[in-house]
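dude i think i finally got it to work??
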Amino acid sequence: MLTLPRVSWQHRHLLGLEDLSAAELTAVLDMAEHFTHDADPPRKKRNHLAGKVIVNLFFEPSTRTRMSFALAARRLGAEVLDFSPSGSSTSKGETFIDTAKNIEAMGIDLVVVRHSATGAPHLLSQHLKASVVNAGDGAHEHPTQGLLDIFTIRQTRRLEGLTVGLVGDIAHSRVARSNIHGLTKLGAKVIVCGPPTLVPARIAELGVEVSHDLDAILPRCDVINMLRIQFERQRSGLFPSITEYARLFGLNSERLKVARPDLLLLAPGPINRGVEITPEVADGPHSAILRQVTNGLAVRMAVLYLLCGQPEG
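look at this
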């Protein structure tokens, strides 16, 4: 078994990247790098978390995040329990906190929680002795997605001085907020871009540049992260039509002609092909979309290990 380095880590929970220093962000990324190097053979199991019990407490649909956390925990040797609200006591009126406390009473070490309510993981951390990892809360943060995005960039780029464009529905994106907190602390310049109705008026207070013109910022960007447009938002009239959005803010092969030759394309997924990104771009040489998914496993292994796998003392 690979001997992992000791790192300075003082947190019991991972609730958001806003709470972490640059040194702490780097510690997670460095630990993920160790797990990446130890990924041959890819399905190798370790016993760093042998005897630990980890619960996936997901109150929203998820494919990549939920499966990634489950695989990460199992590859570290932990037992994994998957919770689904359908068929649970929450459908009988049991509260979110009571559900979590009853699960904790069975003997668990860490809860991975996704919830539509902003602040739900923070609330949970105040009521449980177990560690809590935020897997996405409302439009607030999605810290492990932010970490895996940054990790994917760091594999081929130096973060300090880099220009990263976040394009799309900034207003409702927890991924955007985690990326902003993490990237700016690590020295990157962030430009947020989207229709005025999808870019919060006060977002510049987070230290980012604001634009509503993708063609204007694209030549300046080293990395573009295309955020998903949620079709359910369209009913609110936040932009005229899907076709109009794709014309103004979608990344296609024609638009790529003005981009830097080594542009790195990210997308947290799921993607709406033909809306945020056309198929030939999503599957093209600039795309690191599937690499993000692969890196998510190493990043989540790092987070789980730091929170409940490091030896004490």
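The two ends are 21 Å apart (CA to CA).
im so relieved honestly
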